[in-house]
Amino acid sequence: MAAGGGDPVAELSALRQSIDNIDMALVAMLAERFRCTKAVGELKARYKMPPADPDREARQIARLRELARNARLDPDFAEKFLNFIIREVIRHHEAIARDDAAHADVARESAAVEARP
Ligand SMILES: C=C(O[C@@H]1C=C(C(=O)O)C=C[C@H]1O)C(=O)O
Question: Pfam family of this protein, just one (predicted)?
């Protein structure tokens, strides 16, 4: 990780290179997570399931807190971070459900117009 060797400028630069690599991985993983949650949102909208699942969230938070403790990461921070992401996912799911309902309305209206004598 650290370059060491008594050159603070080189050490800072090596550490920042590692940080940049980690941030790149974080963004890739977040994008992958949002791709999965988008598919979940579409499935829920199609089958009229609620956008949020508080029981699942509680299980995830308990699991993440344990993982954080084992990794020497502050569990409160890990919980806040996951909650921040989940709130955004639920916002997306609500938007998908609204779009789905609007499309269903339009489809119903055009079917009714076509059925007119
Ligand atoms: C992705 C889901 O939808 C919501 C978002 C969650 C998440 O981002 O992990 C978890 C539970 C739900 O409130 C799900 O139900 O699995």
Answer: CM_2
